Amino acid sequence: MSGAEKIAVRVTDIVPLNELVTRFRFEPVDGGLLPTFSGGAHTVVEMRDGDITRLNPYSLMSDPFDRSAYTISVRRDDAGRGGSKFLHEKVQIGDEMTVSNPVNLFSLDLRAKKHLMIAGGIGITPFLAQIKQLDRAHGTWELHYACRSEALGSYVDYLTGTHPNDVHVYYDDRDQTIDLDTLLDGQPLGTHVYVCGPKGMIDWVRGKAHGMGWPREAIHYEEFLAPKPGKPFEVKLALSNKVVQVGENESLLEAIERAGIDAPYLCRGGACGQCETAVVQANGEIVHRDHWLEDDEKASDTKIMPCVSRFEGKTLVLDR
Amino acid sequence: MSIQFHKETFRGDYSFHNSERAIRRFPFPFDKDSYMYAVNMEQHRGGPADSVYEKRFDVDEHYIAEMEDRALVLADDPLRCQSLPHMTLAGWDLLELIMVSKSEDYPDLFELHRDGDKWRWINRPLGIDDSFTFMDETTLPYGPMEYITRQTQGDFCVLDQRDDNLWMDAGTVTTQADWSLDFDIGMNFFEWHAPVPLAHEKGIFVRALKFLLNIQQGAPARRLNWTMTVNPLLDTSPENYHKWGIQKTTLTPENIGTKQHLRVELQTFFRLPRSNALVFPIRCYLCSFDDLMTVPKWGRRLHRVIRDLPDELATYKGFIDNRPMMLDYLSRHDDGQPTSNGIWPDLETEPPLKKG
Amino acid sequence: MSKFEFPPSIRSRPVWGTLEARAGKHHLMIADADGAEAILGIATPDLMAGAHVIYIPRGASHADALRALNPAQFYEGPSYPAAVTRIERVLQDAHMGLQVYLTGTEGLMGQAMHLAMQAGIPHTAIQTEHRGSVARRMQCVHCKGITEDVETDPFVCGHCGLNLFVRDHYSRRLAAYQGVCIDAEDPGNVPEPKGIYE
Question: How many angstroms away from the CA of B218 is the closest CA of chain A?
């Protein structure tokens, strides 16, 4: 069985927060309780758009102790392969959908004496759940949240209203930036730093912390790579003896699934390693877009992460 | 289905005994005539009716006696149950998992009533009726992990998942096959398995860890492990080894059938939701050689497995000195006939022992 | 040179490293006896300007050489237990980014590492280098007492008197190796003690 267990839910609320971000609320179809989860967990939402099925991971932003519903916030990405567009444009209140049991690849280190959170844009979502969890347990945390503008600052009012002393907001359009050197320099031993946002921000925080002597285990990050669209290409599946055309707006994994193959997966976002597939032959260039494979593995053309990566060239043959 | 709970001991006079039913459902671990380590994981989603695999946490005729033995061990040595400070949340997860599972799987024996965070737990066999507030330790007589594991058969290791590894940061360990929680607490997956011979070279632990790191909520797994114990002694701890080690030398050809026990661990693995930790229950089942021999297939197979086991494994499992005596006994129950694959007794299809 | 070539062993046996200067504003260096040699080996004026050196000579004669490096702070103490409260105080107000260097005997490194871990530094970020004696801190698994400076296998537990054999199984939390009763199955049959690495 691939992925985490599935739950049948109904959409009970849709709230556009601003031009780019909309919040969705899911409640169980059978009226029972949803599984609880740990802050930082995500759920994989299954979207059936005609005969196209997409699965996208979204961080759970609701209170882990509130088992009546899950809420997620989705940033619209028009350049993507259509998952967020589908949610924004086609899903309505009352629709029935399927979500997965929560999976956590960005969990808090509960030994930390302090949790330092750095969020960029929609990367705020996992922290919303973690803050609720930590507040219940009287944990120490501090949030630094960079937004493009006040209009696009999702949940800023909520956060600064409930935690005026622990939340610091920075607006790009006012040239406000996080003074990362000062911030990282003064933290007491036992602080863990967590960053979630665009790749550039993650690389910046990781690089800075490392350069300042922070131990690797104290630096946590999550970046959901939504599988980006790309040129169509052909893939041969050696074990299943099939040839599949991967369309522009579907991922390699989605194309394999469309061909009826139950390939393993979990996070759908290039981070967990579950979908790792051996490459039998690659006559062209594998476009690696994941966080999982080592550099030498990427260079060797022997492995690929089909949930996010693609191929350009004549022949790609997979051991699937 | 009602269970007749035994009044029996796992020390001193060793009055422990298995009923016919217990023998039939004993988790014989060998599916073929030889044994080597494997990452022999499968889904823990039920099993044949009345088997030890059917329920999430199996309750059997030894339940009350095992809990009494645990209480004695903990009174004597509180260090057998420890939880590092950050693991309390996982302890609550475990308490909920066991209470929900047992009240659903054994409604005649256990009841759980929940009104928000006000819970009431009734454990009929142990005569417990406790009301408490979920997530508030001050309303329970012990920490949550200790509270619930004092009422559940088997050892429990609660593993924190960090840095692509598992860390033994809490546990209740009173029926272990010779390892010390007090010493191992805080170690990671490779470190606490360090003393196991051969397995590391075979890459067993690397593959096992990858599997365990990816266990998800609602999808538990299980596997079997085994060793040998002289006398039905549950507490074969290193802490008390200087007292029980000598029992290994009391085996004779006359008493080996009743004294020598095959000790099987049914290991399960559950993801815990609020803490993202992994709990690793290790449920110990004992069966004497005489009782095992009542199943002809097991008699034949056990002889072959023990005969062909590499020396390092027999040494690590602590029975290298007694092996010759064991083989003397077991060979009399092996008539050389073929055995079917699989662990089940297959009493209808396996032929009885050929004499002579 | 007082380095020892430890034979390969099981996964829980600590593998000590080699010190190297790391970038950073503050460096905490804790050493006993010949561990001083490892510090002398990496010292530069820049590095020592930000260093707090805590040294327990245990009969070795490197104190003057360490002092001559002009570390920002220098402490020479009579024993590790006497230095513990000082180490805890330094860690209490330290910031993330502090580099920790431990060198000397396994017992010193293990105990100091435990203090640093309690303060919130992951053990993999702590540098170590073994120098000098290969005597071990041993915990008796039966009585839980720790016997210091054990050099022979088997040995007698300094607390309960049992004869124990020396295992390579090591606990970072206790900063000790495990000792287990050697004659449980044959009381009185205790082999002649040999050096642990003989």
Answer: 7
